[in-house]
Amino acid sequence: MNSNGATSSVSSGPNEASRRNSKRPKYSKFTQQELPACKPLLTPGWVITAFTLIGVVFVPIGVASLLGSRDVVEIVYRYESECIPQSFSDKKLEFIQSSETNKTCTRTLTVPKHMKAPVFVYYQLDNFYQNHRRYVKNRSDKQLRDKKSERTTALCTPEATLNGSPIVPCGLIAWSLFNDTYQFSRNDNGRLLSVNKTNISWKSDRDNKFGKDVYPKNFQSGRLIGGAKLDPNKSLSEQEDLIVWMRTAALPTFRKLYGRIEADLLANEKITVKIENNYNTYSFGGKKKLVLSTTGWLGGKNDFLGIAYLLVGGLCFFMALLFMIVYLAKPRPLGDPSYLSWNRNPSGL
Amino acid sequence: MRRCIYINDSDLTLDLYCDNRISNRKYTLLNFLPKNLWEQFSRFMNKYFLLIACLQLWPLITPVNPASTWGPLIFIFAVSATKEAWDDYNRYLSDKQANEKEVWVVKQGTRTRVQAQNIRVGNIVWLRENDEVPCDLVLIGTSDPQGVCFVETAALDGETDLKTRVIPSACAGITSELLHRIKGVIECPYPDKDIRRFDANIRLFPPFIENDLCPLTINNTLLQSCYLRNTEWACGVAVYTGNETKLGMSRGIPEPKLTAVDAMIDKLTGAIFLFQLVVVIVLGIAGNVWKDTEARKKWYVQYPNESPWYEFVVIPLRFELLCSIMIPISIKVSLDLVKSLYAKFIDWDEEMYDPDSGTHAHATNTGISEDLGQVEYILTDKTGTLTENKMIFRRCCINGVYYGNETGDALKDVELLRAVGCNCPEVIKFLTIMAVCNTVVPLKSKNGEVCYKAQSQDEEALVLAAGRLHMVLVDKTGNMLQVKFNALTLQYEILDTLEFTSDRKRMSVVVKDCQSGKIILLLKGADEAILPCACSGQQIRTFVEAVEQYSQLGLRTLCLAWRELTQDEYHEWSLLFKEASGTLVDREWKIAEVCQRLERDLEILGITAIEDRLQDGVPETIDILRRAGINFWMLTGDKQNTAIQIALSCNFISPEPKGQLLLIHGKTEEEVSRSLERVLLTMRITTSEPKDVAFVVDGWALEMTLKHHREAFTQLALLSRTAICCRVTPSQKAQLVELLKRCDYRTLAIGDGGNDVRMIQMADIGVGISGREGQQAARAADYSIGKFRFLKRLILVHGRYSYNRTAFLSQYSFYKSLLVCFIQIFFSFISGVSGTSLFNSVSLMAYNVFYTSIPVLMNVLDKDLHEKTVMQHAQILYYCQAGRLLNPSTFAGWFGRSLFHALVVFIVTIHVYSDERSEMEELSMVALSGCIWLQAFVVTLETNSFTLLQHLAIWGNLVAFYIINFLVSTIPWAGMYTVMFRICGQPAYWVTMMLLVIVGMAPVLALKYFRYTYRSSTINILQQAERLRAPYLPLGNMESQSRTTEKEVIPMSITLPKSRNSVYEPLLSDSPSAIRRASGVSASFDVFNASPSRLSSTYSRNYKSN
Asked: Which residues in chain B have Cβ-Cβ distances shorter than 8 Å to A172?
């Protein structure tokens, strides 16, 4: 135990000391591992306070999120089977693939609550794997951005080239572009509700990822027709539906912005929607939904955060209480040497 | 089996042997890349990473950019290759310097200056004072008329004293002119690395002396890298050159030692690898099934109908790549980094600085610090390790009369001085042996004082003591030796020196008294080596008693003896001796046999007793380390009684009635085996009693047991916490280490001398004391320290911290890579089991090598307990020894934690970022930042003490994560352009992060708190004690306090301890020191011959199991 006797005894004459000091390890708090350190301890007080504090913070946030989510008004209308005429109910695939059938269907939706402008119009696809490995990488960002690199289509097979000349935009994602369309009108006066389809994509995508001088070429002119066709006279940066679609979704159920209705919808108002049901989800049993939604401070209608916050906050309160009770009922002195195993049991641990 | 070297004859030997070009290089410019890569890829981990990196080159299967693996891989390889290249370049430079150094070599009868690399075998090389010897030479001439020269062999064996080298007798008297033209042949063995042996012959051709064979020993050589000192010039014949020199042959990279922690990490890596394979197979099959059933329906994926033959392996391989990060590529680098820092901490440690010798601790092996914390057996040398190795002549017994018993110093004993004064013949003889029978070299300094250069501390002590008693060794020139006794000058001619070997345990010289012309054999050695050779009439009982008495006092004894020889007898023997000295095979053994013939019928003169004091702090150190559950074995060359006395005085064993010694002894094999059985039986019956039982075995019995009863001895070794092995040879020491190692115990060997080198190299950890016996042990060791007492700090502080830190670091490394990997796996369930990576390549790479490595590297500063607390409660080391902090079950905890955290991150993320927000880049960044937040808090929660640096690393890293990602988000062509700005602008993101952290950490915190308070481990209790009470009491107080309270505590602690008044009371029920102090240090000690009564050991050895 007298190990620091060794360090303190070097004072035998200045000369000798300095000579020896040159060989000595340089002293610093770092090299001696003696940097000042704070050593927190999990004391009951600390832990109970922490849990209570979490509860105090979480419950209000949970309430706020839940209220925010409840304020959002949402109309979801699932139409993929309803828009199939009775005669085709057994052969949906045939219906959707045929070019002769009339795919327009008109339905009426009721606005449950007052919806303040802007009302966002989304289409929702279920069981659609935009995140599938074969699909998600099947694009050429270079080609989309730059007219000069229209030939970089290496990742785009099988939708890369048509008779040797490149397809712009190439790849499966672009090829499978969603092509249902919606038209809204107010029921009471029959006036059209215009859907604003500008600025529905990310600004950064329009400015940087999709070229202003890149025009569709050879698109959807092959043997297999996938989804929507593009106007060959509009540059890619103006094709906002494509830009939105090309932002692949990470989940098999996703919504994509279709447009905005920039008018308030009144409660109980009836809205007629004319759906052009073109997109094939029938071969894999995917659902299609039309969604009209306002937005709150946390985004769309999503109770998850609110519920989770309330739950976690509640549980933390509960834990704090539990710890408190245990602490009061069975106080245990911290750092009591009598708990040391070699004190309790003389034969080792 | 031998080479013939023709001296100075370039025609005959020119091309047979290599030139003197030294090359220590591992690589050449051409083979560097392939060889270095090959070496690096011989490690399993590297092979694995290479395989992964190669697979990633196949674009069909790679989920991420190959750069994410190639980048770190190339970086890691480049770092270690650069290090190797730099080392090799430095070796090349030093080789070049040595090779191009100019030396004088005789060419065609004239001295010419050539570069050292051009020396050929057979050349005659001339050296001046302070020259370095360029290759192994056989000395043929020196400036000294007697043919003696001095060399410093520090570079070879680390010993700093000067050694004497002489020319072979055949070359005596040749003038320096003639040396240019000398011809002859040297017959010597093939090059080997034994620097203590050179069994060769020289035969000079006429006209130089008669055609006579003259034996050569190591004393006739100048070995490479030695320095010529105190001699004007010397010349010799090159016998071994280049890489074939003794030094060149003994060079070589020692086998790397693998620590227990490393072995455990390897095992866990293997387990993770298996887990990964299972995941890959399961997901691969699921992926193929999904593809065939579901994906073909998805027209937008356009699965082709006919697929290539390898189609079925594509998805499994994708998953293999996706899961490859399970084994973190950064773990090796991080571990190497922190390990070298541990070593630096040892080097830097002020408290392990020895002001007496000016040496600080040094970690030669930077890779095994964790093992220090897991030591279970310490095998220690005695002399120079436990003791100071400062020999002082204290007592003697001459002809049955004890001197020095009253004063404790024979030199001050009036009786002895009077006996010297009146020329009592026995005393004179005794003093003569002390002064003459040695290999000490007297050096006359300018002012006429004589100082001595000795290889053996004992000899120096004897010569000095003889000098004080007026028998002064004045001069030793060649074979002539001058001793001054009072005013008289006595001359002796040394005829032969029969050297000391550890087998013979004695040394003797044959001298001719120049005054009377008598030939006398002077002998000194261990009593058991000499007393049996006493002449038949002599009473040796008094000597046996004297030896007994001295060794009871812990003194080292030597027995001195004398015999007059007749001329005929000597000449007859001399021929035999010459023959034996000339043999090339088994020379040592043959010489020993010949010497035996002379060393008989001795007249025993007396016993000398030399004191070797214990080093400071040895008893405390042993006491603390024993409390830490470390078993001590003492292996010494000393005799039993001395060893036991030293053992007693340094707390090694407890005196009666607390301790008990069991003796294994016997003269014959049966006796030994019976004795062993008895001891074993006793040990077995009595393992439950609170007693310190130690067994004692001597070299002879040990040899018997190791040869015939290895099994039984192993069992005994496992039962006994303490053992004393005396009279053991270096190879037996190594054998014992090996025996314990084979039982899977972590062994630490500590020693200071050349005889400990083998044991040090054999043990898991070798610690050398840079002491007075030279640096040999320190050089061979993994750690060198200045004093034995530093061992406790080395083990309890450095070893323990290193273990704790590595345990955390390695498990954490797996945790964080598993975390990301699990998220990827979960994501694959919602991406059609197709092997899509959620995270982009840059993030993955940065996550593994950057975001998660830096905070945890700062963990090298973490200290769970204060050093002083550890020293007080050394038992805490049990945790490290038993591997409590890193084992499959703790690892399972981390595994579970990463699974839980992955679930939390994944579920929260996909629920919050669902529907219109489920954009891939955004979602992946949210999940990644969730991981980063969680890992920051995990590190925080697992850190025991926060220094500023740690805070900086943890929170700075979090900030750095955002800064880096913001930067990347400004790059227009990057995939995540603007993504980070978008998500950070939404309140939902921050609300999600907070939720993630709390959901992830609150259960962990609650669990930790519960365990900490209600199921506290010993570490926790001590932490609480240390942090709640006063920081810690100053050292002095603590010591005294413990002393005062000790006595009251002893009886109490066996029942339930009630005292809660002070944290710092000695908490030990069975502290050996407590009892020792209580019963008094001077308690007498009886050696029991294994009476199977009521003995035993408190320490059940099964703490490993819980």
From this structure: 300-302
